[in-house]
Amino acid sequence: MRLSSLLALLRPALPLILGLSLGCSLSLLRVSWIQGEGEDPCVEAVGEPGGPQHPDSRTQLDQSDEDFKPRIVPYYRDPNKPYKKVLRTRYIQTELGSRERLLVAVLTSRATLSTLAVAVNRTVAHHFPRLLYFTGQRGARPPAGMQVVSHGDERPAWLMSETLRHLHTHFGADYDWFFIMQDDTYVQAPRLAALAGHLSINQDLYLGRTEEFIGAGEQARYCHGGFGYLLSRSLLLRLRPHLDGCRGDILSARPDEWLGRCLIDSLGIGCVSQHQGQQYRSFELAKNRDPEKEGSAAFLSAFAVHPVSEGTLMYRLHKRFSALELERAYSEIEQLQAQIRNLTVLTPEGEAGLSWGPGAHSSARAQGS
Predict the structure, then answer these.
(1) Coil, helix or strand for 364?
(2) Does the keyword Membrane apply (predicted)?
(3) Which of 54, 160, 209, 235 has the fewest C-beta atoms under 10 angstroms from its C-beta?
(4) pTM for the complete prediction?
(5) Burial (CB count within 10 angstroms: exposed 0-12, middle 13-18, buried 19+), residue 76
(6) CA distance between the termini of the chain
């Protein structure tokens, strides 16, 4: 009677007891198998602790110790070879060979350096890593906060040739793209930077607003300098050896046309307005036209606007495009808020769990306007 009652009490725990017993048995068997497989190879090589060692194993140990003995190698410098000091760069970007994306070169003159060039600097300088101004005026005094390079000759072909030579010599290894523009051009800097970021750098590219040469074939095109144009680093490197020849052989009163002829004659490369799905969009501003009244798709999506006759017009264009960018940012915020509101329906708290009120965006937009 007592045995049956004891079995009744232990019956729920029988599977646990059997499992523990089986696990302990298998663990003991595995340990015995591992210990019985063979002797330790280290014991074979060295011998039992405290016991006699085999003479061959001792010889092997001595030889292995000799392999790891340090050896002093004296420094010797060949006196016939010039000594070159190794310079360590200050920045990790330079040491790794990384390059900046875009450099902007602005062609200016003595008459517009203190007016239009200053307006360009105030509207776009903070968007680009480096902005340089090139002029033919000898000894030009740069305005505050501007880096001006004076070539000393105002001839158009000479100015363009020396500008390209300067870019190649001083910045050819530091930048992937070079944007050349005139000081009577307004540039939408964020869009231009985004365009350069979407283009592959390992190609010869001459991108801008295409224009046909007078009396030339349909394939011979150059980029209009008034709307700016992009030159890839690889194209600048290939063009550099031909600059002297082009300056002596090509006669042109326009620096952009001279550059286009030089590229076609020396490298067979003409201007294109579209590449890899990216379109270079520009807008020609009519005389006495108010930027506030421009609402065409060509104007709203333009990378560059030309011509800009005075600095005041440059600032008005900047105000107009800044307002458009602000409206675009507000529109994106509204879309994101709508998506967040739709997703809160799936959360346990619902719309009550939102951390911002429905009028937060409206009040911020009212303050911005």
Answers:
(1) helix
(2) yes
(3) 54
(4) 0.68
(5) exposed
(6) 94
